[in-house]
Amino acid sequence: MAWSEGPRWGLRLLPRGKRRALAGAIEGTRMDLPGACYASFEELLPDGRSTGGALGRRCAEILGSRDPRAAARFADDLGVALTLVELLRDLPEHARRGRVCIPAQELMRYHLHDDGALGAQALHALALQGRTAEPSVVAGFDGGDVGQLYALMRFQALRARDWLHRAAPLVLLLDRRGATYVTASIGGARRLLRNIEQHPDLALTAPVRLSRRERAWVLAKALLRPYRVSEQHPAERML
After folding, report:
1. Would you state the pLDDT for residue 37?
2. For residues 193 and 157, what is the distance between their CA atoms, to the nearest angstrom?
3. In sequence order, what are the residues at sequence separation of 6 or more whose Cβ sits closer than 8 angstroms to the Cβ of residue 222?
4. CA separation, residue 152 to residues 106, 128, 129 (Å)
5. Residue 68 burial (CB < 10 Å; 0-12/13-18/19+)?
6. pLDDT tens digit string along 157-168?
7. What gap in Å lies between CA 215 and CA 231, rounded to an integer?
8. Range scoring the smallest mean pLDDT among 62-66, 134-138, 225-229, 231-235
9. Residue 69 contacts by C-beta under 8 Å, 6 or more apart in sequence?
10. Rounded CA gap, 210 and 231, in Å?
11. Do residues 22 and 3 make contact, with C-beta atoms less than 8 angstroms apart?
12. Residue 83 in contact with residue 52, Cβ under 8 Å?
């Protein structure tokens, strides 16, 4: 899960009491979306807010802040962002278990929607096919349905980056330890998304995880600059 790749390995940064409370909240609120399909992102968003968002708000309460109301809002966005990362990261596994968490409108936009919404079985079969592709297809050139699936995955990654960008100001409301913890969580999620964007084929083979070196790098940056908030939107970096 995205939560386990960010907040869980960053728990060591916090005092023991807060660490135990946060660990319990994370373990008790694992995302488990029902098998129903979603027509649009607007239909999926409430589930993200009621699971990941609720967890984010709970974490903000435990960490404490200078402005609880604003912190709750940003923490809600962070929870949604990490939920979106998780849904992308576990896309093949969800499809294997009969879940299609990608909105039907977006499947249609990327030509992965025929007479009806692409079913879990068909999506799982396409994910298996997407594990192997020519380098040009992986890079984003052609590739038929597999290439379209890669493009859709990159779009989902950009959306998750947008929500991480919205949540980033949360660090400005926390003490240094809390800010470091959140900065590490956001940094870990961004690193995961980068790995998925660069190698969507590998992301369809097994859930993407950060290496020890990547985790160390993310934690080091968070410790050195816990209050750093980029003003540049993720989409602007692609121009």
Report:
1. 73
2. 6
3. 10, 13, 180, 181, 183, 184, 187
4. 8, 16, 15
5. middle
6. 999 999 999 999
7. 24
8. 231-235
9. none
10. 25
11. no
12. yes
60 pLDDT higher than 60: yes
Both tokens of 2, joined, read 């995205």
Q: What would the two tokens of residue 108 be?
A: 């249609």
SS3 114: coil
Give residue 110's pLDDT: 85
Q: How far apart are CA 161 and CA 159, in angstroms?
A: 5
The domains found in the chain, sorted by start residue, are 2-238 (1.10.600.10)
Token pair, residue 25, equals 């909240």
The predicted-structure confidence for 26-56, as pLDDT tens digits, reads as follows 544 444 544 557 888 998 888 778 777 677 7
pTM, entire model: 0.82
Rounded distance between C-alpha atoms, residue 86 and residue 239, angstroms:
26
Residue closest to 196 by CA, chosen among 149, 154, 135, 137: 154
